[in-house]
Amino acid sequence: MPGRIFGIDLRRASPQPDQPLRNKNNSISSLIPDSRRSSMEHLKRPTLSLAKRLPSHDRKDRSLSKDKHAKDAPRSPLVPAPIKLNMLMESPPALFIDPPNQSTGALISGRLQVTCNLPEVTLTSIIMYLEATTTIKRPVHERCRECATTINDLYEWKFFSKPKHFTASEGMQELPFSHLIPGHLPSTTHGQLGTIEYSLHVRAMSSDGRETEFRRDLPIHRALRPGNDKNSVRIFPPTNLALHVTLPNIIHQIGEFPVQCRMTGIASKREDTQTRWRLRKLTWRIEESEEMISPACSKHANKVGGEGKGVKHESKREIGHDELKQGWKTDFDQGQVEGEFMASIDSSTNPQCSVEAQNGLKISHNIVLELVIAEEWAPNKKPHQATPTGAARVLRTQFNLNVAARSGMGIAWDDEQPPMYDDVPASPPHYQNNLTELADYSGEDLHADVEHLTLGDE
Ligand SMILES: [Zn+2]
Protein backbone atom coordinates (compact mmCIF):
# COMPACT_ATOMS: atom_id res chain seq x y z
CA MET A 1 0.00 0.00 0.00
CA PRO A 2 1.28 3.51 -0.74
CA GLY A 3 2.48 5.68 2.05
CA ARG A 4 0.89 8.98 2.75
CA ILE A 5 1.84 12.41 3.85
CA PHE A 6 -0.15 15.40 4.88
CA GLY A 7 0.43 19.04 5.20
CA ILE A 8 2.23 19.19 1.90
CA ASP A 9 1.55 21.71 -0.78
CA LEU A 10 -1.97 20.92 -1.81
CA ARG A 11 -1.62 22.85 -5.01
CA ARG A 12 0.10 19.86 -6.50
CA ALA A 13 -3.13 17.99 -6.89
CA SER A 14 -5.67 20.70 -6.33
CA PRO A 15 -5.42 23.28 -9.03
CA GLN A 16 -7.65 25.86 -7.44
CA PRO A 17 -7.63 25.11 -3.75
CA ASP A 18 -9.82 28.03 -2.91
CA GLN A 19 -12.26 27.48 -5.72
CA PRO A 20 -12.53 23.76 -6.08
CA LEU A 21 -15.90 23.86 -7.76
CA ARG A 22 -14.74 26.40 -10.26
CA ASN A 23 -13.57 25.58 -13.69
CA LYS A 24 -11.06 27.74 -15.45
CA ASN A 25 -13.58 29.85 -17.26
CA ASN A 26 -16.95 28.99 -15.91
CA SER A 27 -18.08 29.03 -12.38
CA ILE A 28 -20.08 25.94 -11.73
CA SER A 29 -23.07 27.85 -10.50
CA SER A 30 -23.54 29.41 -13.88
CA LEU A 31 -23.61 25.96 -15.44
CA ILE A 32 -26.26 24.66 -13.13
CA PRO A 33 -29.82 25.27 -14.25
CA ASP A 34 -31.93 27.14 -11.71
CA SER A 35 -34.05 24.11 -11.11
CA ARG A 36 -30.95 22.25 -10.04
CA ARG A 37 -29.33 24.96 -8.07
CA SER A 38 -31.48 24.65 -5.01
CA SER A 39 -30.74 20.97 -4.70
CA MET A 40 -27.06 21.76 -4.98
CA GLU A 41 -27.03 24.08 -2.03
CA HIS A 42 -26.61 21.31 0.48
CA LEU A 43 -23.58 19.99 -1.35
CA LYS A 44 -20.84 21.53 0.66
CA ARG A 45 -18.04 23.03 -1.30
CA PRO A 46 -15.32 20.40 -1.54
CA THR A 47 -12.68 21.57 0.82
CA LEU A 48 -9.47 20.96 -0.99
CA SER A 49 -7.75 22.90 1.73
CA LEU A 50 -9.12 20.46 4.24
CA ALA A 51 -5.83 18.96 5.25
CA LYS A 52 -4.55 22.37 6.18
CA ARG A 53 -7.30 22.69 8.73
CA LEU A 54 -6.76 19.32 10.32
CA PRO A 55 -4.96 19.72 13.62
CA SER A 56 -1.48 18.40 13.30
CA HIS A 57 -1.97 15.59 15.79
CA ASP A 58 -4.92 14.38 13.75
CA ARG A 59 -2.87 14.47 10.62
CA LYS A 60 -0.14 12.51 12.25
CA ASP A 61 -2.66 10.05 13.51
CA ARG A 62 -4.12 9.60 10.05
CA SER A 63 -0.74 9.14 8.49
CA LEU A 64 -0.03 6.38 10.94
CA SER A 65 -3.38 4.71 10.74
CA LYS A 66 -2.36 2.08 8.23
CA ASP A 67 0.79 1.16 10.07
CA LYS A 68 -1.22 0.90 13.23
CA HIS A 69 -3.43 -1.70 11.63
CA ALA A 70 -0.54 -3.45 10.04
CA LYS A 71 1.62 -3.75 13.13
CA ASP A 72 -0.04 -2.83 16.39
CA ALA A 73 -3.55 -4.07 15.77
CA PRO A 74 -3.38 -7.46 14.14
CA ARG A 75 -6.73 -8.61 12.86
CA SER A 76 -6.89 -11.70 14.97
CA PRO A 77 -10.12 -13.67 14.73
CA LEU A 78 -10.10 -13.63 18.53
CA VAL A 79 -10.32 -9.83 18.54
CA PRO A 80 -12.83 -8.96 15.85
CA ALA A 81 -13.14 -5.37 14.68
CA PRO A 82 -16.10 -3.79 16.50
CA ILE A 83 -17.89 -3.10 13.24
CA LYS A 84 -17.83 -4.19 9.63
CA LEU A 85 -17.95 -1.52 6.94
CA ASN A 86 -19.13 -1.95 3.38
CA MET A 87 -20.24 0.35 0.62
CA LEU A 88 -22.91 0.27 -2.03
CA MET A 89 -22.48 2.71 -4.90
CA GLU A 90 -25.75 3.82 -6.43
CA SER A 91 -24.38 6.14 -9.09
CA PRO A 92 -22.98 4.79 -12.37
CA PRO A 93 -19.18 4.78 -12.86
CA ALA A 94 -17.89 8.33 -12.48
CA LEU A 95 -17.53 9.90 -15.91
CA PHE A 96 -16.63 13.49 -16.67
CA ILE A 97 -18.03 14.71 -19.96
CA ASP A 98 -16.16 17.48 -21.82
CA PRO A 99 -12.71 18.94 -21.25
CA PRO A 100 -11.61 20.11 -17.79
CA ASN A 101 -12.50 23.75 -18.40
CA GLN A 102 -16.05 22.86 -19.48
CA SER A 103 -16.99 19.71 -17.62
CA THR A 104 -19.69 20.01 -15.01
CA GLY A 105 -18.29 17.07 -13.08
CA ALA A 106 -19.71 13.75 -12.01
CA LEU A 107 -22.30 13.05 -9.33
CA ILE A 108 -21.61 10.12 -7.08
CA SER A 109 -24.00 8.66 -4.55
CA GLY A 110 -24.09 5.58 -2.43
CA ARG A 111 -24.65 4.13 1.02
CA LEU A 112 -22.12 3.32 3.65
CA GLN A 113 -23.14 0.09 5.38
CA VAL A 114 -22.31 -0.42 9.04
CA THR A 115 -22.75 -3.79 10.74
CA CYS A 116 -21.97 -4.46 14.40
CA ASN A 117 -19.66 -7.35 15.14
CA LEU A 118 -20.36 -6.94 18.86
CA PRO A 119 -23.77 -6.82 20.58
CA GLU A 120 -23.41 -3.05 20.85
CA VAL A 121 -20.86 -0.46 19.80
CA THR A 122 -20.69 3.27 20.30
CA LEU A 123 -18.98 5.06 17.49
CA THR A 124 -17.63 8.51 18.18
CA SER A 125 -17.21 9.32 14.51
CA ILE A 126 -17.41 7.98 11.00
CA ILE A 127 -15.56 10.16 8.55
CA MET A 128 -15.22 9.44 4.87
CA TYR A 129 -12.68 11.15 2.63
CA LEU A 130 -12.65 11.48 -1.12
CA GLU A 131 -8.94 11.07 -1.69
CA ALA A 132 -6.78 11.81 -4.71
CA THR A 133 -3.58 9.79 -4.62
CA THR A 134 -0.65 10.77 -6.82
CA THR A 135 2.12 8.21 -7.07
CA ILE A 136 5.50 9.04 -8.57
CA LYS A 137 7.32 6.19 -10.30
CA ARG A 138 10.68 7.96 -10.08
CA PRO A 139 10.71 9.62 -6.68
CA VAL A 140 13.40 12.15 -5.83
CA HIS A 141 14.70 9.79 -3.18
CA GLU A 142 14.46 6.13 -4.03
CA ARG A 143 12.13 4.12 -1.80
CA CYS A 144 10.95 7.21 0.10
CA ARG A 145 7.20 6.87 0.58
CA GLU A 146 6.80 10.58 1.23
CA CYS A 147 8.56 11.52 -2.00
CA ALA A 148 6.62 8.92 -3.98
CA THR A 149 3.07 9.40 -2.78
CA THR A 150 0.83 12.36 -2.18
CA ILE A 151 -2.70 12.01 -0.88
CA ASN A 152 -5.04 14.96 -1.03
CA ASP A 153 -8.47 15.04 0.55
CA LEU A 154 -10.89 16.51 -1.95
CA TYR A 155 -13.96 16.23 0.26
CA GLU A 156 -15.01 14.80 3.58
CA TRP A 157 -18.23 13.49 5.03
CA LYS A 158 -18.83 13.50 8.78
CA PHE A 159 -21.73 11.13 9.17
CA PHE A 160 -22.70 12.26 12.67
CA SER A 161 -21.64 14.96 15.08
CA LYS A 162 -22.40 13.21 18.39
CA PRO A 163 -21.42 9.66 19.42
CA LYS A 164 -23.86 7.18 17.91
CA HIS A 165 -24.96 3.88 19.33
CA PHE A 166 -25.13 0.80 17.09
CA THR A 167 -26.47 -2.59 18.13
CA ALA A 168 -26.20 -5.97 16.44
CA SER A 169 -29.93 -6.56 16.85
CA GLU A 170 -30.70 -3.59 14.58
CA GLY A 171 -28.82 -5.28 11.76
CA MET A 172 -26.97 -3.38 9.07
CA GLN A 173 -27.36 0.39 9.19
CA GLU A 174 -27.03 2.44 6.01
CA LEU A 175 -25.67 5.97 5.81
CA PRO A 176 -26.37 7.68 2.48
CA PHE A 177 -23.89 10.05 0.86
CA SER A 178 -23.59 11.99 -2.36
CA HIS A 179 -21.21 14.47 -3.92
CA LEU A 180 -20.56 16.34 -7.12
CA ILE A 181 -16.94 15.70 -8.07
CA PRO A 182 -15.68 18.82 -9.83
CA GLY A 183 -14.98 18.25 -13.51
CA HIS A 184 -11.66 20.06 -13.72
CA LEU A 185 -9.89 17.24 -11.89
CA PRO A 186 -7.67 14.95 -13.97
CA SER A 187 -9.15 11.56 -14.77
CA THR A 188 -7.76 8.38 -13.24
CA THR A 189 -4.42 7.85 -14.98
CA HIS A 190 -1.81 5.09 -14.82
CA GLY A 191 1.15 6.52 -16.67
CA GLN A 192 4.72 5.36 -17.02
CA LEU A 193 6.00 8.12 -14.72
CA GLY A 194 3.07 8.76 -12.44
CA THR A 195 -0.43 7.69 -11.51
CA ILE A 196 -3.50 9.53 -10.31
CA GLU A 197 -6.15 7.54 -8.50
CA TYR A 198 -9.25 8.37 -6.51
CA SER A 199 -10.76 6.49 -3.62
CA LEU A 200 -13.30 6.75 -0.84
CA HIS A 201 -11.63 6.15 2.49
CA VAL A 202 -13.77 5.58 5.58
CA ARG A 203 -12.49 5.79 9.14
CA ALA A 204 -14.80 4.82 11.98
CA MET A 205 -13.70 5.36 15.58
CA SER A 206 -15.34 3.49 18.41
CA SER A 207 -15.60 4.91 21.93
CA ASP A 208 -12.93 2.49 23.16
CA GLY A 209 -10.49 4.05 20.71
CA ARG A 210 -10.48 1.33 18.11
CA GLU A 211 -10.52 2.32 14.48
CA THR A 212 -12.07 0.50 11.55
CA GLU A 213 -11.10 1.50 8.03
CA PHE A 214 -12.60 0.84 4.64
CA ARG A 215 -11.43 1.88 1.21
CA ARG A 216 -13.11 1.75 -2.17
CA ASP A 217 -11.40 2.71 -5.43
CA LEU A 218 -13.28 5.32 -7.39
CA PRO A 219 -12.07 5.38 -10.99
CA ILE A 220 -12.96 8.57 -12.83
CA HIS A 221 -12.92 8.69 -16.62
CA ARG A 222 -13.29 11.54 -19.02
CA ALA A 223 -15.18 11.37 -22.30
CA LEU A 224 -15.17 14.05 -24.96
CA ARG A 225 -18.02 14.62 -27.36
CA PRO A 226 -17.15 13.71 -30.95
CA GLY A 227 -16.80 16.78 -33.14
CA ASN A 228 -15.84 17.66 -36.67
CA ASP A 229 -12.86 15.90 -38.19
CA LYS A 230 -9.62 17.84 -38.12
CA ASN A 231 -8.10 18.86 -41.45
CA SER A 232 -4.42 19.69 -41.57
CA VAL A 233 -1.96 20.50 -44.33
CA ARG A 234 1.78 20.07 -44.25
CA ILE A 235 4.09 21.39 -46.93
CA PHE A 236 7.59 20.17 -47.70
CA PRO A 237 9.71 22.95 -49.16
CA PRO A 238 11.59 23.17 -51.44
CA THR A 239 9.29 20.65 -53.21
CA ASN A 240 5.76 21.47 -54.26
CA LEU A 241 4.46 18.59 -52.19
CA ALA A 242 1.61 19.28 -49.81
CA LEU A 243 0.09 16.63 -47.59
CA HIS A 244 -3.57 17.02 -46.60
CA VAL A 245 -4.61 14.82 -43.69
CA THR A 246 -8.02 14.36 -42.11
CA LEU A 247 -8.27 12.82 -38.65
CA PRO A 248 -11.08 12.34 -36.13
CA ASN A 249 -10.97 14.96 -33.37
CA ILE A 250 -11.21 12.26 -30.70
CA ILE A 251 -9.85 8.73 -30.76
CA HIS A 252 -10.12 5.94 -28.22
CA GLN A 253 -7.79 3.44 -26.64
CA ILE A 254 -9.64 0.60 -28.32
CA GLY A 255 -10.84 0.51 -31.91
CA GLU A 256 -9.73 1.73 -35.30
CA PHE A 257 -9.93 5.23 -36.70
CA PRO A 258 -9.65 6.42 -40.30
CA VAL A 259 -6.77 8.54 -41.55
CA GLN A 260 -7.41 10.23 -44.91
CA CYS A 261 -4.36 11.40 -46.81
CA ARG A 262 -4.01 13.32 -50.03
CA MET A 263 -0.70 14.54 -51.36
CA THR A 264 -0.64 17.14 -54.12
CA GLY A 265 2.16 18.50 -56.25
CA ILE A 266 3.61 15.11 -57.11
CA ALA A 267 4.08 15.80 -60.83
CA SER A 268 6.02 18.52 -62.63
CA LYS A 269 5.53 18.76 -66.38
CA ARG A 270 7.88 20.38 -68.81
CA GLU A 271 7.41 20.75 -72.55
CA ASP A 272 8.23 17.16 -73.52
CA THR A 273 8.93 15.33 -70.30
CA GLN A 274 7.70 15.10 -66.78
CA THR A 275 9.17 14.15 -63.42
CA ARG A 276 7.01 12.90 -60.66
CA TRP A 277 7.11 11.44 -57.18
CA ARG A 278 5.68 8.00 -56.64
CA LEU A 279 4.63 7.00 -53.13
CA ARG A 280 6.43 3.78 -52.32
CA LYS A 281 5.73 3.28 -48.64
CA LEU A 282 3.73 4.89 -45.85
CA THR A 283 4.55 4.23 -42.20
CA TRP A 284 2.49 5.47 -39.27
CA ARG A 285 3.12 5.22 -35.60
CA ILE A 286 1.32 6.54 -32.55
CA GLU A 287 3.46 7.99 -29.79
CA GLU A 288 2.46 8.53 -26.18
CA SER A 289 4.50 11.28 -24.52
CA GLU A 290 4.47 11.75 -20.80
CA GLU A 291 5.82 14.39 -18.45
CA MET A 292 5.81 14.30 -14.68
CA ILE A 293 7.31 16.45 -11.99
CA SER A 294 8.59 14.41 -9.07
CA PRO A 295 8.28 16.57 -5.95
CA ALA A 296 10.56 16.09 -2.97
CA CYS A 297 9.30 15.53 0.56
CA SER A 298 10.50 17.97 3.22
CA LYS A 299 13.20 15.54 4.28
CA HIS A 300 14.63 15.31 0.78
CA ALA A 301 13.95 18.86 -0.41
CA ASN A 302 17.66 19.63 -0.24
CA LYS A 303 18.20 17.13 -3.07
CA VAL A 304 16.30 19.36 -5.49
CA GLY A 305 17.30 22.75 -4.17
CA GLY A 306 14.59 23.55 -1.68
CA GLU A 307 10.97 23.06 -0.69
CA GLY A 308 8.34 23.17 -3.39
CA LYS A 309 10.74 22.17 -6.12
CA GLY A 310 10.85 18.94 -8.07
CA VAL A 311 12.49 17.05 -10.87
CA LYS A 312 10.88 16.85 -14.26
CA HIS A 313 10.86 13.51 -16.02
CA GLU A 314 9.82 12.78 -19.59
CA SER A 315 9.19 9.59 -21.45
CA LYS A 316 7.94 8.66 -24.87
CA ARG A 317 6.83 5.31 -26.20
CA GLU A 318 5.20 3.83 -29.25
CA ILE A 319 1.69 2.47 -28.76
CA GLY A 320 0.79 1.49 -32.33
CA HIS A 321 2.36 1.34 -35.78
CA ASP A 322 2.04 -0.14 -39.23
CA GLU A 323 3.63 0.02 -42.64
CA LEU A 324 1.70 0.24 -45.91
CA LYS A 325 3.07 -0.39 -49.38
CA GLN A 326 -0.15 -0.13 -51.31
CA GLY A 327 -3.77 0.92 -50.98
CA TRP A 328 -3.59 4.41 -52.45
CA LYS A 329 -4.58 5.85 -55.78
CA THR A 330 -2.02 7.74 -57.83
CA ASP A 331 -3.21 10.27 -60.42
CA PHE A 332 -0.29 11.93 -62.19
CA ASP A 333 -2.63 13.94 -64.43
CA GLN A 334 -4.07 15.60 -61.36
CA GLY A 335 -0.67 15.48 -59.71
CA GLN A 336 -1.92 13.84 -56.57
CA VAL A 337 -1.98 10.59 -54.66
CA GLU A 338 -4.69 9.82 -52.15
CA GLY A 339 -5.91 7.08 -49.89
CA GLU A 340 -7.38 6.22 -46.56
CA PHE A 341 -6.11 3.74 -44.00
CA MET A 342 -7.24 2.59 -40.61
CA ALA A 343 -4.96 3.19 -37.66
CA SER A 344 -5.35 2.06 -34.07
CA ILE A 345 -3.70 2.05 -30.70
CA ASP A 346 -2.35 -1.28 -29.54
CA SER A 347 -4.55 -1.79 -26.50
CA SER A 348 -2.09 -4.30 -25.03
CA THR A 349 0.31 -1.41 -24.32
CA ASN A 350 -1.92 -0.08 -21.52
CA PRO A 351 -2.52 3.18 -23.39
CA GLN A 352 -3.64 6.18 -21.35
CA CYS A 353 -6.02 8.98 -22.21
CA SER A 354 -4.58 12.40 -22.94
CA VAL A 355 -4.42 14.31 -19.66
CA GLU A 356 -2.91 17.45 -18.22
CA ALA A 357 -2.99 17.67 -14.43
CA GLN A 358 -1.95 20.53 -12.21
CA ASN A 359 0.41 18.24 -10.32
CA GLY A 360 2.61 18.14 -13.42
CA LEU A 361 1.44 14.91 -15.02
CA LYS A 362 0.85 15.43 -18.71
CA ILE A 363 0.17 12.75 -21.30
CA SER A 364 -0.24 13.62 -24.95
CA HIS A 365 -0.41 11.67 -28.19
CA ASN A 366 0.83 12.10 -31.74
CA ILE A 367 0.50 10.18 -34.93
CA VAL A 368 3.73 10.31 -36.93
CA LEU A 369 3.52 9.74 -40.68
CA GLU A 370 6.49 8.86 -42.84
CA LEU A 371 6.07 8.73 -46.59
CA VAL A 372 8.81 7.34 -48.78
CA ILE A 373 8.63 8.78 -52.29
CA ALA A 374 10.74 7.89 -55.31
CA GLU A 375 11.32 10.17 -58.26
CA GLU A 376 10.68 8.98 -61.79
CA TRP A 377 10.90 10.48 -65.20
CA ALA A 378 8.64 9.95 -68.25
CA PRO A 379 8.14 11.44 -71.72
CA ASN A 380 4.83 13.31 -71.94
CA LYS A 381 3.86 11.31 -75.01
CA LYS A 382 4.29 8.02 -73.21
CA PRO A 383 3.61 8.85 -69.56
CA HIS A 384 3.36 5.17 -68.67
CA GLN A 385 6.93 4.49 -69.70
CA ALA A 386 8.49 5.84 -66.58
CA THR A 387 12.08 5.44 -65.48
CA PRO A 388 13.20 5.85 -61.89
CA THR A 389 15.81 8.56 -61.50
CA GLY A 390 17.17 6.96 -58.38
CA ALA A 391 16.29 9.91 -56.15
CA ALA A 392 14.15 9.20 -53.14
CA ARG A 393 12.92 11.19 -50.17
CA VAL A 394 11.21 10.50 -46.91
CA LEU A 395 8.58 12.97 -45.78
CA ARG A 396 8.03 12.96 -42.06
CA THR A 397 5.35 14.84 -40.18
CA GLN A 398 3.14 14.45 -37.12
CA PHE A 399 -0.30 15.35 -35.91
CA ASN A 400 -1.70 15.66 -32.43
CA LEU A 401 -4.24 13.05 -31.35
CA ASN A 402 -6.76 13.51 -28.56
CA VAL A 403 -7.27 10.18 -26.78
CA ALA A 404 -10.34 10.03 -24.54
CA ALA A 405 -12.69 7.46 -23.06
CA ARG A 406 -15.79 6.48 -24.97
CA SER A 407 -18.85 8.17 -23.58
CA GLY A 408 -20.82 4.95 -24.09
CA MET A 409 -24.14 5.22 -22.29
CA GLY A 410 -22.75 7.87 -19.99
CA ILE A 411 -24.80 11.02 -19.82
CA ALA A 412 -23.66 14.15 -18.07
CA TRP A 413 -25.58 14.58 -14.83
CA ASP A 414 -26.80 17.95 -15.99
CA ASP A 415 -27.62 16.77 -19.48
CA GLU A 416 -30.76 18.86 -19.55
CA GLN A 417 -28.68 21.97 -19.45
CA PRO A 418 -28.97 23.97 -22.66
CA PRO A 419 -26.13 23.37 -25.11
CA MET A 420 -23.22 25.77 -25.07
CA TYR A 421 -22.59 27.57 -28.32
CA ASP A 422 -19.00 28.50 -27.82
CA ASP A 423 -17.71 25.74 -30.04
CA VAL A 424 -15.68 27.26 -32.80
CA PRO A 425 -16.43 25.82 -36.24
CA ALA A 426 -13.66 23.90 -37.93
CA SER A 427 -11.15 26.43 -39.17
CA PRO A 428 -9.55 26.15 -42.58
CA PRO A 429 -6.43 24.02 -42.64
CA HIS A 430 -3.34 25.79 -41.46
CA TYR A 431 0.24 25.29 -42.47
CA GLN A 432 2.77 24.12 -39.96
CA ASN A 433 6.10 23.88 -41.65
CA ASN A 434 8.01 23.37 -38.47
CA LEU A 435 6.39 19.98 -38.05
CA THR A 436 7.49 18.62 -41.35
CA GLU A 437 10.72 17.09 -42.43
CA LEU A 438 12.10 16.25 -45.81
CA ALA A 439 15.01 13.87 -45.99
CA ASP A 440 16.88 11.75 -48.45
CA TYR A 441 15.81 8.17 -48.33
CA SER A 442 18.09 5.27 -49.00
CA GLY A 443 16.21 2.35 -47.51
CA GLU A 444 17.00 -0.99 -49.07
CA ASP A 445 13.35 -1.82 -49.54
CA LEU A 446 13.02 1.13 -51.87
CA HIS A 447 15.59 -0.08 -54.35
CA ALA A 448 14.10 -3.53 -54.29
CA ASP A 449 10.74 -2.08 -55.20
CA VAL A 450 12.02 0.38 -57.73
CA GLU A 451 13.30 -2.46 -59.87
CA HIS A 452 9.73 -3.34 -60.71
CA LEU A 453 8.57 0.19 -61.06
CA THR A 454 8.86 0.89 -64.72
CA LEU A 455 5.31 0.62 -65.99
CA GLY A 456 1.74 0.94 -65.10
CA ASP A 457 -0.55 2.90 -62.83
CA GLU A 458 -1.31 2.06 -59.31
ZN1 LIG B 1 11.53 11.80 0.62
From TrEMBL:
Residues 1-79, 414-434 are annotated as: Disordered. GO terms for biological process: ubiquitin-dependent endocytosis. Residues 22-32 have a biased composition (Polar residues). Residues 34-44, 55-74 have a biased composition (Basic and acidic residues). One of its GO terms (molecular function) is ubiquitin protein ligase binding. GO terms for cellular component: cytosol; plasma membrane. It comes from the Eukaryota. Residues 130-304 form the LDB19 N-terminal domain. This is LDB19 N-terminal domain-containing protein. It comes from Acrodontium crateriforme.
